[in-house]
Amino acid sequence: MIKNISFLLLIFCFFDISLSAQYNPLHIPDTLSGTQFNLTLIDTFTQLRSGNQTITSGVNKNVFWGPTLIFNQGDTVHMNVRNNLNDSTTIHWHGFHLPAVMDGGPHQIIPPGTIWQPYWKVTNQASTYWYHPHLHQMTQEQMTKGLGGFIIVRDAEEAKLALPRTYGIDDIPLALTSRRYDASNQFVFVNSAYGDYMLTNGTPNAEVSLPKQFVRLRILNAEMERAYNLGFSDNRTFYIIGNDGGLLNAPVPVTRMILAVGERVEIMVDLGNDAVGSVLDLNAYNSGFALGFPGGEPATSGQFGSLLNNTTFSVLHVIIASPTANGITALPQTLANNTYPTAADATVNRTLNVTGGQGPVPFSFDNAPFVFSKINKTIDINTTEKWTITNNNIFGHAFHIHDVQFKIVSRSSGAVAPYESGWKDVLYLPRSESATFVARFTDYSDDIHPFMYHCHFANHEDGGMMGQFVVTGETTSTKEVAPLPIEFTLYPNPTDDRIYISFNDPSVEVYYIRLTNASGRTIYMLPRPHWQAGIDVSHLASGIYMLQLTDEKTKEVTTRSFVKK
Ligand code: C2O
Ligand code: CU
Ligand code: CU
């Protein structure tokens, strides 16, 4: 027995010595598809480095990051988000065009122990999106712990193209981020903008085998602040095929590309001429940037320093493997047929200035740090707007807006580069520059619930570099508000399965239903529920519950109780 153990130790030592670097197999998140998605947010822990395990958060069975959700354009997707964390949170569907009340921004708070059930019709184009927590002043902490996940949208246009599409084989999602650890291996997020160690899909020193053919990488910058100047270790050309919100009209060849926080890019890289068994790195060429590039600061420690700052480092080690049957061996010459709005289409022009950032004053927009109750902009539905964001400031930022995909129409630094010529929801705004985008605000109006715009650096956003807008569908002067309670009854009562609602006025539209238990704790939050089919309460514990119903027109709240058997 003792002999066997020392033999095993000998083998481990042999492998330790034989590997020049310690790589770990890249984690490929599992996928969920269909139209019903169950996401349970959990506090957990995992072994990320030698020594103590690290306290993390994950989704479903995952100990860091969550499953990749696969949506089909045109489907109505129903989300079942159960918050089993110890804290309140929110889950935002980054990049999606949907009603504000389903958006999962800072206002759609999910208390611990509660289920939130938003749903919407997927109208976004095929691309790579993501979900992540968005609780104000808690975003950096909750994202640092690992909450988040990819969303892949498929559509008929994209399906017609000869693109790599076998998830985890030739179509690989890559969430790039880094973490700093304290002496007991716990994540550091207080007064810390940058991690010291790379995590790719939550894997330290990630390595993956990719087939000898064209491979598609869906890359997300899931950092708190750092930007990545991506490229391959042999400086080979790769092809940008998609931006945040869809395919480009045609592939754009590059050898380097800056990806700021929150941005996604889909690339194709040709591994067809590489020898099986040869290696290649996807690197961040982050050395040599002047002050203002996020992660270019020279310090190796402290609030704005990091071991990865101003260096070149690997984000993914690639080993070339045998080609797959029917792999993609050519790059399509055309991809999509987008028609983008132009500056001339805009009927409303807005400006935003980056302010703050001096000494202890946090960054903000227009010297107005985020206030929960203040709507900063009101947009009429079906308006095309032009927004110019000016950064006469000391540092770069990543500007993001909810609800829409926009088109960057100009930059003060020169022409808009082809690699960012597609649909975008985040733009990198270097210091001393301004950028202008055009977007059209359609479909979803809501006078009360706002959408956000903010810097996607989690620390800047938490610090107040955020504003909010409502999209209004009618002018308030023409709106008749009759603040009368809605008359309704619940049946059967008591119930052991479903609870149904009967309205005295059948034209009532339900805006929101909240179920609370007898001690007032929220159990369910149901935005615009399909109440006609009844609400499934079968798994609730026996007892008395309150159903609070908010009327769509008046936003009046009426409460009724029922008994769960
Ligand atoms: Cu990715 Cu407002 O967020
Ligand atoms: Cu967003
Ligand atoms: Cu910022």
Describe the fold and architecture.
This protein has 565 residues and is mainly beta. It has 3 domains: 5-321, Cupredoxins -  blue copper proteins (Immunoglobulin-like, Sandwich), CATH 2.60.40.420; 343-472, Immunoglobulin-like (Sandwich), CATH 2.60.40.420; 488-564, Immunoglobulin-like, CATH 2.60.40. 6% of the residues lie in helices and 41% in strands. It is built from 4 helices and 40 strands. The strands form 7 sheets. Strands 3, 4, 6, 8, 9, 36, 37, 39 and 40 form a 9-stranded mixed β-sheet that branches. A 7-stranded mixed β-sheet has the order 14-13-12-16-21-18-19, with no helix packed on it. β39 and β40 (557-564) form a beta hairpin. The radius of gyration is 25 Å and the shape is globular.
In DSSP terms, counting alpha (H) and pi (I) runs of 4 or more, how many helices? Answer: 4
Query: What would the CATH topology of the largest domain be?
Result: Immunoglobulin-like
Determine the fraction of residues in helical runs and give it as a percent range.
Answer: under 10%
Count of β-strands:
40
Dominant shape: globular
Oligomer: single chain
Provide a concise account of the structure shown:
6% of the residues lie in helices and 41% in strands. It is mainly beta. Mean pLDDT is 93; it is low at 1-20 and 475-482.
